[in-house]
Each structure stands twice: as structure tokens, then as C-alpha cells.
Design brief:
Length: 388
């Protein structure tokens, strides 16, 4: 006997899951009723139930429950549109077919209606299902870049908002959990207990998470409702982190001083990691270095304005045992000419050897900062480092 649906009480919230359960139960009842009205007994081919009820993805295991499939006689066949599922598992019988849904052309992430056709020697039954592409493990990276601070001069006793841009570089849509932290030498609890993570319009995110499609960007805010009193002249850092499945990313520690104007990041510079050079040590925004060894970090910078550019390298947050050394062909100062950017921009690879001692702090953060001479703004790339 099928378990009855649960009743709801006045005032209860009816969710999409509740409605879907009701719809699935009704569809199942209609299929069973149709089988009875068409004389589903005897030798008639019938499909009574699909388990699980769907929607489905390519690669999912599906069970088709019914009658007279003629599996034992080798006559059972299943098609998804024109694509046959050639392998029915050993769990299949004349009343249950088990299979892995094969690749079907033209299936979209939003869901595509596909004809499921079940055949025996002489009959066929068609059901329509919703099918989505195969869901591969989440791969790629997530990048977080600081955009601005409002007001530009952080003041004690006043609110301050830090704007970040989160960009997905993954193969699938994902939900990203967001966390923020203030790094400050003293009174850290008074800073961190206030932290709020908000959407671009200033609405507090509860829970603190965002959904991103592959390649999508979204702005989020980190807000301190009231900078602790008596903190004028205090140096502090703000970090925004994002994580989903086994992928994480960080803005790195962006430094500010209470009472001192903060220049915005230089929008004429972009800087991205090049994982292919790191011998597998770089995953997303995290570089893993075995204790007592080093790994290559390569950054691809895009520059649009001529000038002399200076690079500074730093280990952040007081971490110990880490060094960032120049690798071949890289200097801490270089010149970009007007001819270099005549086409609109030019690219330059910056190569560094990141080393960890056997007792290096882990995890830690490093920063590569690029600044055009004479310009108060700069571009900084921060990465998490882990000693293995």
C-alpha cells in the first residue's frame, strides 16, 4: 500500500517540494488508472512507475516498473527519443527494467522534454520525462576581487562597506558559501562580531551564499555597521572567501587604515593565475607547496596604460616560513611603452618561486601587488598557500 500524503495545518508554509510530491503522486495515480482502464493485465505491456520520479540527468540510474517487458526473452528495449539504452543491468526482470540513461542530443540545463519509449516484441509504451545534461564534478575556480570602500576614508564610530566582485570560473552552476573576516592586531572580536555579508543592494544575505552560473559575476558587500570607537590610525585587513564542493577562493587580505583615505584598485590592470605552470600545485585560488620545497606561480597580467610598473611581494597576516622569489625573466620593475599598448592592451607573464620551510605557517596568504609609478591606485592578487 502506498504511504498517504501528510496533512498540513493552517499557517504552514507549503513549499515547492510539497507541491512536487503531490504532482508526482497524482501523475503516478493517473498512470495506474490508465493501465486499469486499458486492460493493463494479461499480456499487455505496461509502464506503471519510474523510480526515482525525476527530473533526470544523463548518467542517472533509472528503474522502469511495469509488466510484460519480456526481458527474459531478450525482447525488452528502451529508447530516449531516438537514442537506445543498450545496457539493461542484471537487476532487470520482466516487471522491472534498470538502466543508466544514455547521452541524448540537444538536452539543455533548463530541462528538455524527452520521449521515453519502452518496447517488447510486439508493443510499445511512451512516457515523457524531463532530462538535463550530465552533471560533472565541479571544476574550475572562483575569483574574488575588491572593488571599492564606502566611504573612502574609514571613520571610527561610522559604518563602512567593502564592495567585492565574485566571478565563477567553473564548469557547472554552483551555490557558494561566503565568509568574511577582519584581521586586526587588537580588539578583533569587536570588529568581527559585527560583520554582515550583503547583496549588491545592501540586503543582508541569510544564509550568506550566492548562486552563480559558469562565467557569471556578482557583486557582494561586506559591511561593518560601526567601526569600533577609538580605532583611529588602526591598520586592519578585510578578507572575503567563497567555497563550494572542493573549490574555494579568497580576495586575500585587503588592507585599510582608519582615518586614512583608501585609493580604489587600478582598473587598468588585470591579473590572473596560470595553473598550467604550477605542476598541479595550484587549485583555484590555493597554492599547495610541500614543506622544504618550492612551486612555480605564474601570473598573466593585462596592462592598458603605458608607464613604469613596480611589483611588490608580501606574505600577509604575519605568517612565517614562506618566501616569494623572482623566477627567470621577471623583475620587480618594468616599462610598458605606448607602442606596447597600441592595440589596446599588452600582456606580460610574471613568474615567482613560492617556497615553504618544513615548519611554515599553514594556511597562509601571499600577495603580488602591481602599481604604475605615479599612480596612487594599484592592483593586488592574493592567494591562499598551504604547506603539505
Amino acid at each position: 500500500m502506498t504511504n498517504p500524503l501528510s496533512h498540513v495545518s493552517p499557517g504552514d508554509i507549503i513549499s515547492a517540494a510539497d507541491w512536487n510530491l503531490l504532482i508526482d503522486s497524482l501523475n503516478d495515480a493517473l498512470v495506474r488508472l490508465d493501465a486499469l482502464e486499458t486492460g493493463g493485465g494479461g499480456t499487455a505491456l505496461a509502464v506503471d512507475q519510474l523510480l526515482p520520479p525525476g527530473p533526470y540527468r544523463i548518467g542517472d540510474t533509472l528503474q522502469i516498473v511495469g509488466r510484460n517487458f519480456q526481458f527474459a526473452a531478450g525482447a525488452a528495449r528502451v529508447f530516449f527519443n531516438a537514442q537506445q539504452a543498450f545496457t539493461l543491468t542484471s537487476n532487470s526482470t520482466d516487471s522491472k527494467l534498470e538502466l543508466v540513461i544514455p547521452t541524448v542530443a540537444g538536452v539543455l540545463e533548463s530541462g528538455t522534454n524527452v520521449d521515453l519509449v519502452v518496447m517488447n516484441q510486439a508493443q510499445q509504451v511512451t512516457r515523457q520525462i524531463v532530462l538535463r545534461p550530465r552533471l560533472n564534478p565541479l571544476q574550475g575556480n572562483i575569483t574574488i576581487g575588491w572593488q571599492s570602500v564606502t566611504p573612502q576614508t574609514v571613520l571610527a564610530g561610522q559604518p563602512v562597506t567593502f564592495l567585492y566582485r565574485v566571478t565563477s570560473g567553473t564548469n557547472n552552476a554552483a551555490t557558494w558559501a561566503l565568509t568574511a573576516q577582519v584581521n586586526v592586531a587588537s580588539n578583533a572580536a569587536a570588529w568581527n562580531s559585527q560583520l554582515q555579508i550583503c547583496d549588491a543592494q545592501g540586503n543582508v544575505l541569510n544564509p550568506a551564499q550566492i548562486n552563480l552560473q559558469p562565467g557569471q559575476q556578482m557583486d557582494v558587500q561586506v559591511r561593518i555597521p560601526s567601526v569600533p570607537a577609538g580605532s583611529n590610525g588602526t591598520s586592519f585587513g578585510v578578507t572575503l572567501n567563497a567555497g563550494s564542493a572542493n573549490i574555494s577562493g579568497s580576495s586575500g587580505i585587503n588592507q585599510f587604515v582608519v582615518g586614512t583615505p583608501t585609493p580604489p584598485p587600478d582598473a587598468t590592470i588585470t591579473m590572473d593565475t596560470v595553473p598550467a605552470y604550477s605542476m598541479g600545485a595550484l587549485s583555484g585560488n590555493t597554492l599547495t607547496v610541500p614543506g622544504g620545497q618550492s612551486r612555480l606561480l605564474v601570473l598573466n597580467t593585462t596592462l592598458t596604460v603605458p608607464g613604469t610598473y613596480n611589483v611588490t611581494r608580501a606574505v600577509l597576516g604575519g605568517a612565517t616560513g614562506w618566501t616569494i622569489n623572482l623566477d627567470s625573466g621577471t623583475t620587480d620593475s618594468f616599462v610598458i611603452t605606448a607602442a606596447d599598448v597600441s592595440g589596446g592592451s599588452t600582456a606580460r607573464l610574471l613568474r615567482y618561486s613560492v617556497a615553504a620551510t618544513a615548519g611554515a605557517s599553514t594556511p597562509a596568504q601571499i600577495e603580488i601587488r602591481l602599481q604604475r609609478q605615479g599612480n596612487s591606485s594599484y592592483y593586488a592578487k592574493a592567494l591562499n598557500t598551504v604547506r603539505s
